[in-house]
Amino acid sequence: MEQKSGTLSESVCSGYFSLQWHITNSCDQRCKHCYIFNGSEEFNFIETPLETLLLILDDFLDSCKKMNKRPYLAITGGDPLLYPHIWEFLQAVAERKCEFSMMGNPFHVSLDIAKRLYELGLDIYQMSIDGFEKTHDYFRKPGSFNATIDAIKVLKKAKIHPTLMMTVSKKNMGEIPSLIEWLAENTAVDMISFARYCPTHKDTDSMMSSDEYKCFLEKVWNVYSKYKNSKRPVLTFKDHLWKPFLYEKGLFSIDETNELIMDGCHCGTSGLCVLADGTVYACRRMYSPIGKVPQRSIYDIFLSKELEHYRNWGQIEKCKDCKLLNYCRGCRAVAYGATGDFLATDPQCWFKN
Questions:
Q1: CB neighbours of 187 closer than 8 A, spacing ≥ 6?
Q2: pLDDT computed for residue 46 by the predictor
Q3: Can you tell me the distance from the alpha carbon of 17 to that of 30, in angstroms, rounded to the nearest whole number?
Q4: What digits encode the pLDDT tens for the residues 176-210?
Q5: What phi-psi label fits residue 253: left (phi over 0), alpha (psi between -120 and 50 degrees) or beta?
Q6: CA end-to-end span of the chain
Q7: Coil, helix or strand for 85?
Q8: 192 pairs with which residues across the strands?
Q9: In angstroms, rounded to a whole number, what is the distance separating the alpha carbons of residues 68 and 92?
Q10: Average of pLDDT values for 131-152?
Q11: Which of 17, 26, 141, 142 is in Cβ range 3.0-4.6 Å of 69 for a Cys bridge?
Q12: Using CA atoms, how far apart are residues 300 and 312, in angstroms rounded to an integer?
């Protein structure tokens, strides 16, 4: 079926369809770059009722069946382990044989908890790390760095794969390459990823320039190259700007005759995000409400005109004329955070056709 760039093709979101699900926004941290608390100590805590979670869960599974996609849940919060009905909910997920991972804090990951999670089918538990101890604890809270390192050991004992996500900004970019190497050499972490900081408090001073970011990727690439033949940890290429970086090195090729969206920014392609109040976002890292569950089905929301608005790829500044449009498109959330317009140029993209 012939498609033009900027439209959703049948090949997009093939395989898995994921739901990043914030079952609660309760959290015992106040991270400085958190997009939930947004710098405020005054906050309305929300716990999705268990019966509502089960309605949404069954709708998600039905929607995936309609789309002929394999369902995958990324269960998060807040801290999902603080949700008062977490075990009843996870038991329901297990009974429905739905694959899932969890993203949370390290403070409540005891060995007994981890073993219980493993028995319910949890394979991956993701935590954050944003620098060595002083820097990480500045972003998170005192003791957070050591708690994360300890939780890696606990999760491994329970046969769960510990993974780490880093948020990279101008404030910590100098530590990240050496931190990745330190973690690879000194911990049992199974996967390391990083994403760029999205301004949520008009804090554009924390953003790297395009030249700074390219230089940062070069330094990370040198570390990655050292571990390219290692089985652990897996060092991912999550950030979409890896595509132009690797393309310039001759390590990534494209089919310039292809008009299908093949990869890149996942907004509007391979999943959705549900907040604790049921609001559905096209992307959690930017303000992008497109509906509410369980009032509307996930299937209807995914095919809605509201989400189609975020598939307007052919109108993205700079990207629309780029040969890597169908493979990259930068990060729409970074563009939105910096400018207020998700169709604006990704401010950290240096690539020129």
A1: 149, 152, 153
A2: 81
A3: 30
A4: 999 999 999 999 999 999 999 988 756 677 889 99
A5: beta
A6: 27
A7: coil
A8: 164, 235
A9: 22
A10: 95
A11: 17
A12: 18
Give every CB contact of residue 317 below 8 A, 6+ residues apart in sequence.
343, 344, 345
Number of residues that make up the chain: 353
Buried b (16+ CB within 10 A) or exposed e, 260-286: bbebbbbbbbbbbbbbbebebbbbbbb
Structure tokens at 315: 């109108």
pLDDT tens for 222-276 read 999 999 989 899 999 999 999 999 999 999 999 888 888 888 988 989 999 999 9
Placement of tokens 């760095």 in the chain: 145
Q: Which two tokens stand for residue 227?
A: 């571990």
Do residues 26 and 82 touch, judged by C-beta distance below 8 A? yes
Q: How many angstroms separate the CA atoms of 324 and 258, rounded? A: 11
Closest CA to 323 of 255, 250, 242: 255
Q: Quick check: 158 and 202 in contact, CB under 8 A?
A: no
Q: How far is CA 320 from each of CA 45, 127, 259, 308, rounded to the nearest angstrom?
A: 40, 35, 12, 17
Helices (H) and strands (E) in the chain, counts: 11, 10
pTM of the model: 0.91
Dig out the tokens for 291 from the structure.
């509906």
**Residue 147 amino acid letter:** A
What angle (nearest 5°) sits at the alpha carbon of residue 123, between those of residues 120 and 161?
135
Rounded Cα distance between 152 and 164, Å, is: 9
Phi, psi of 48 (to 5 degrees): -65, 125
CA distances from 331 to 87, 242, 334, 337 (A): 35, 11, 5, 10
Distance from C-alpha of 285 to C-alpha of 331, rounded to nearest angstrom: 10
| Each residue's pLDDT tens digit, 162-172 | 999 999 999 99
**DSSP 3-state of 126:** strand
